[in-house]
Design brief:
Blueprint (H helix, E strand, L loop, with lengths): L1 H19 L4 H47 L1 H14 L4 H23 L11 H25 L2 H26 L4 H26 L4
Length: 211
């Protein structure tokens, strides 16, 4: 949702600003496509770097935990016992569970119960980068398509209207999925989208003639 909103707002705002500046249709379409590509790659790069850092941290935590299991297994067993007692088990039962879990998979148990690292949720930089790029591209596609299909005099208004409707839909859907108020989510995203498009339209109006 975040990537799609970003693609829709940034690319839609770019198209609106350039349309108000009365750029030629061909130039405007090229700029919209360039905005889509640049934005998608920027999202992918940022997500890759961020998740790679997270992955490095996870690997460092696992390496440290692996060393501690070798150097001081009794202390690690005490840590697990304390964790299970904190979850409501009596001390004898917590100790027995810790012993059994350590015997089964010591590192996996500490990764899950002490560090909060689960196998299915480990950081995957490439997957995150591709997902972000795809989400941004999907959000940016409607303004690009409108730049291709709508006559230049009608483009700014059309892109603004369609983008705001889509933003309201995405904001409402995100709020619904998160269990929040749908109307609040829709209005919140729409407000920032309208602000961004209004600002770029103002820039296009002021500097359009000089460009």
């Amino acid at each position: 949702m975040l990537g799609a909103n970003d693609g829709l707002i940034s690319t839609g705002s770019l198209v609106v600003g350039m349309a108000v500046a009365q750029m030629a249709s061909h130039d405007l379409l090229i700029a919209a496509l360039a905005g889509l590509v640049a934005g998608a790659l920027s999202m992918a790069a940022g997500e890759f770097v961020s998740v790679s850092s997270q992955s490095d941290t996870e690997q460092a935590d696992l390496a440290r935990e692996r060393a501690e299991l070798v150097d001081d297994p009794e202390h690690e067993l005490d840590e697990l016992t304390g964790i299970y007692m904190g979850r409501g088990l009596s001390e004898p039962l917590a100790r027995q569970v810790a012993i059994e879990m350590t015997r089964h998979d010591a590192l996996g148990t500490h990764a899950r119960d002490e560090l909060g690292l689960f196998e299915g949720s480990r950081a995957n930089p490439l997957q995150a980068a591709l997902a972000s790029a795809l989400a941004f591209s999907l959000g940016a596609l409607p303004p690009v398509a409108l730049a291709l299909l709508v006559p230049a005099p009608l483009l700014a208004g059309t892109v603004s209207g369609v983008s705001l409707l889509l933003l309201a839909g995405l904001g409402g859907l995100a709020a619904r999925l998160g269990g929040a108020a749908v109307l609040t989510g829709a209005l919140r995203v729409s407000f920032w989208g309208a602000l961004a498009m209004g600002a770029t339209a103002l820039v296009g109006q002021i500097f359009g003639a000089r460009i």
